[in-house]
Every structure is written in structure tokens, then in C-alpha cells.
Specification:
Layout: H1 16-24, H2 31-41, H3 48-60, E1 62-65, H4 73-84, E2 98-101, H5 106-113, E3 119-123, H6 134-146, E4 151-155, H7 158-162, H8 166-180, E5 184-188, H9 197-209, E6 214-216, H10 228-245, E7 250-252, H11 260-273, E8 286-288, H12 291-304
Parallel strand pairs: 1-2, 1-8, 2-3, 3-4, 4-5, 5-6, 6-7
Helix pairs in contact: 2-10, 3-11, 3-12, 4-5, 6-8, 9-10, 10-11
Length: about 325
């Protein structure tokens, strides 16, 4: 995977000025048009067998997440077991894509999901604020990788980005990518703090130029996280980036996606914007904790005709 700008766009990262010129030369975002399209796609109706397929696909795309100060090894083991076998009463339910934890819980998570195909993702780089020196951030990443993390979810320096110091952000992502080794890198923008859609578009291209394997909306720790509009904008970015460079990059909306209805809306956005190549958990993920339970309840309802309710799924 790339650790710096693909050859087709190598010149734009040659200096701070060329990078700034490129990012500010991207087309401006029509906010009204973007939100209207996202809302329109959200009205699509998915029924019966298509809905059953969409629910299983969404389950397989979940990064089942616990990122709390009160996390314990027992909680991580329970969550890992749920990721591997989401519905103990129905072994046809797919496993989730990954379990996402703090670096100090990676080894516990790795042991719990061993041999299952479920990946272990770790947040890093002084998550969620990212306010630390680069050597501290890189040590955070190396600790997670050494413990067995398959994926690293890093946060960008939003202060540097908003100050227009794009090369600093670019260099940090490149350094984190290198420290991640074989682990895939998800780059979190914290879109709720970037203020404008233009900034989200610029951050998306900046992350991809620096070698991100995924671009991710948010940490789930601020008031505004993933929305249909900001995810649509990022899907447009990965589609256009592949058209220019041949490099495919994944997208991960995170935070605030809690219901099956919400998840299906996002899958429609993927299909209609980036295309079917992204309808796979190698290229699209949901960062979520409570979403999985609703997906399981809706899955049970389709199978039995009855809505079992939250007492019939595990509490995370």
C-alpha cells in the first residue's frame, strides 16, 4: 500500500506551497446540493430479500467498538466473543469485520478473536484529541502493532489542519503509515471540528495523498460525527481519487449510526456514489457499538416475523 502520494499526484506533495495550491484548487462543495442528494438517497426503500442481504452486509462491516476509560479485559473479551458470534441463537449471522479497542487492550482482543477472521483495530496517536508530540504518537502506534493490531485508527492534528499547516498533517500521516507496518491505516478527520464541507474534501484528499488505507469521519467523541452528507462527500473523494490514481481507499463513518434504517441509508450512499466495488468490508466499515444490536433484532424479525426486542441481545 502507498506510504506517500501515488505517482500520478506526486508533484502536489513536493512542497507546502504545491500541496496548498492543490487542496485549495479542489472544486468547492455545493452544500445545498450535497445535503439534498444525501437526503434523496436516504429515501430509497429496501424490502424483503434485499433488506436481509443489506442487514447481513452491514453486520459484516461493523467495527464493534469500546473506547471507554472504564474498559476492562472482561468487557473486551465479551465484546470480542460477540464480534465472532453476534447471535448465539443463530450461527448463520455473519461475524463483524473487527473489534476496535485502545492499544493496551489489543492483546486481550487478539487472543479472544484468534482464528475467527475478525480483525483487531486499535485507535492510536493520542486518540481522540491527538494533542501529543509526534514521537509519542508513533510510540502509541508501535505499541498497538507489537501487541498484534491488524489496523490502526489514527487522528489527524486538527489544529495544524485548520491553521493551514497541511504539510505537517501530511508528514504525520506518512510517518504513522510507516510505523503501522503491515497494519492497515484508517485516518480520522473529526469532521465535526473541520467546520466546512470544503475542509472535509481537502482533508479527504490530504489523507489519501499521504497513504491512508481508509478515511474515517470521526472519533465518536464529539457532538457531530458521521452524517449522510459528510460520508457522501468522502465517498465522492475516494471515487475520484481512484479515477485519478488507480488506488482504492476505504471509507469508515463512525459515531451516531445506531439503527438498521440508518445503516441501510449509508449502504445506498456507497452503492450510488462510489459503486459496488466499495460494498465489501475491506473497503467500507461502520464504527459503532449499539448498531449491531439493532441489526440483530431486525434480522430476527425478518426470520421469525416477530420483533424480539432488546432483552434478546447482549448488552455491550
Amino acid at each position: 500500500m502507498p506510504t506517500s502520494a501515488p505517482a500520478a499526484l506526486a508533484d502536489v506533495t513536493a512542497s507546502d506551497s504545491t500541496l496548498r495550491r492543490f487542496l485549495h484548487g479542489l472544486p468547492g462543495v455545493d452544500a445545498v446540493g450535497l445535503e439534498a442528494r444525501a437526503a434523496s438517497l436516504g429515501t430509497r426503500s429496501i424490502k424483503t430479500t434485499a433488506k436481509a442481504y443489506a442487514i447481513d452486509l452491514a453486520i459484516s462491516m461493523v467495527d464493534l467498538t469500546t473506547l471507554e476509560g472504564a474498559d476492562t479485559p472482561g468487557k473486551v473479551r465479551a465484546l470480542g466473543a460477540k464480534a465472532v458470534l453476534p447471535d448465539p441463537t443463530d450461527r448463520t449471522a455473519p461475524s463483524t469485520a473487527a473489534i476496535c479497542v485502545y492499544p493496551d487492550m489489543v492483546a486481550v482482543a487478539k487472543e479472544t478473536v484468534a482464528g475467527s477472521g475478525v480483525l483487531v483495530a486499535s485507535v492510536a496517536t493520542a486518540f481522540p484529541a491527538g494533542r501529543a508530540a509526534l514521537d509519542v504518537k508513533l510510540a502509541d502506534v508501535r505499541d498497538a502493532v507489537a501487541a498484534g493490531a491488524d489496523e490502526i485508527d489514527m487522528v489527524i492534528d486538527r489544529g495544524a489542519f485548520l491553521a493551514g499547516n497541511y504539510m505537517k498533517v501530511y508528514d504525520e500521516i506518512v510517518a504513522v503509515k510507516e510505523a503501522s507496518g503491515a497494519a492497515r491505516l484508517k485516518v480520522i478527520f473529526e469532521t465535526g471540528e473541520l467546520s466546512t464541507y470544503d475542509n472535509i474534501r481537502r482533508a479527504s484528499w490530504l489523507g489519501m495523498l499521504a497513504g491512508a488505507d481508509f478515511i474515517k469521519t470521526s472519533t465518536g467523541k464529539v457532538a457531530v460525527n458521521a452524517t449522510p452528507a459528510n460520508t457522501l462527500l468522502m465517498l465522492e473523494a475516494v471515487r475520484d481519487f481512484r479515477a485519478q490514481t488507480g488506488v482504492q481507499v476505504g471509507v469508515k463513518p463512525a459515531g451516531g449510526i445506531r439503527t438498521t434504517k440508518d445503516a441501510i441509508k449509508f449502504l445506498v450512499l456507497v452503492n450510488e456514489t462510489a459503486g459496488q466495488d466499495w460494498l465489501d468490508n475491506h473497503w467500507f466499515r461502520f464504527g459503532a457499538s449499539s448498531l449491531l444490536n439493532d441489526l440483530l433484532m431486525q434480522r430476527q424479525k425478518l426470520a421469525t416475523g416477530r420483533y424480539s426486542g432488546p432483552d434478546y441481545v447482549t448488552v455491550d
